[in-house]
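Protein entry
_____________
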Amino acid sequence: MIKKRTLRAIIGLLLLSSFGAFAQLFSTGERVTLESEVLGESRQIQVLLPEGYRAELSSNYPVIYLLDGDYNFHGMSGMLDLLANKGQLIPKVILVGLADKGTEQYRKYMTPNDSSSPLKENKGAATEFLAFLNQEVQPYIQQHYRTAEQSILVGHSIGGLFVLNSLLNAPNSFDNYVAISPSVWVSDNAIVEQAKSKIKGLKTQDNGIGLYLSLGDEMQMGQYAFINELDIAAPKNIDWHFKHYPDENHNSVGLIALRDSLKLIFKDWYLAEKYLEKMQPTKTLDYYAEAMKSLDIQQSIPAGVVHIMLRQHYRQNKADQVAGFIDGAIKRFPASKLVLVTKFASFIGYYDSQDAALSYLKGYENDFAESVDYFKALAGTYEQLKQDKQAKRYYQKALALAEQQNANLWLLNILRAKVNGIST
């Protein structure tokens, strides 16, 4: 008989190995080590690519640079998955978490050089850390990933102070600055004195920059003094916003504040159905052409929007015009090709026949060799036609791709259930 202690050890090992395999299914992206010449040390960043990145080769993505990355990464990445990947309220983004090397060093690098680090008398080194971001981190991200010309710096608390200091001293470093409950109080509100002398004369890029300030239920952060300087200077090249969250504390405000800030930054991206229904499909395409030009990005039009445009054609008895509409939309929006094709196929299957839908989808197999969604749609069509062998084959293709691309667990579970549930 196995002794209880031995049995517990075996169970423990099994649980640990299971947890390790389970944890791998929740991707936190890629850990990258940079040998920084600016800082004279090794620094790490965490890079999380958006859902579908490997299949959407015509797309580029805004980049969010998140300070105190190891502390904030899990919460923010989960929120972005819902906001961008699933909800499509904003474009998909690349998230770059900037790792720390201990509390004291983090505070030193977040504190302006003319101030003292909180709780210590050592001087700040924000200038050096901003140079690291501008000269080493941003170039690395731009060289290795498909980035759009749209960058966002996000910091909370002492990180929020770094955001404000960066805006005042090198405003063209980023397109948008998100300062969540910034520690304006550091060194007797020294950042406010900077603002008095610098805000009005800031020289920014032609289209200006965005500043998004927020505050929880806090009395001692000193932020209203900084806001007062913005009110007095009224800078025309800074599009600034402030929101107070009286029901959030210093630690809880970060998630909702970043969510709201991103919705403001990308306010032109999402069109509610009540507005879409009043627009003709061609006008909707014009709208997204202008939105992408304004945001300087190339991405797929949201799937929900494509669905409504196609539905409008069928409801207005214009089904005969859909194929031409799709072809024209693909030419104008190459990054939208996958969603246009798969959505049109679903309408063909509903209004015409599954055989017609299959024929249409098969014509694009070489175009979407890296797309889980394409193979999943193709498998589903075969399944509707009761062609189980082919359905299983394409679900297996979709599953293999999903595993290779480290897709989310919910998608893997759906595909595994399909593969295991079809007998051939």
Observations:
- The beta strands are 30-36, 41-48, 61-66, 94-98, 147-156, 176-180, 209-215, 238-244.
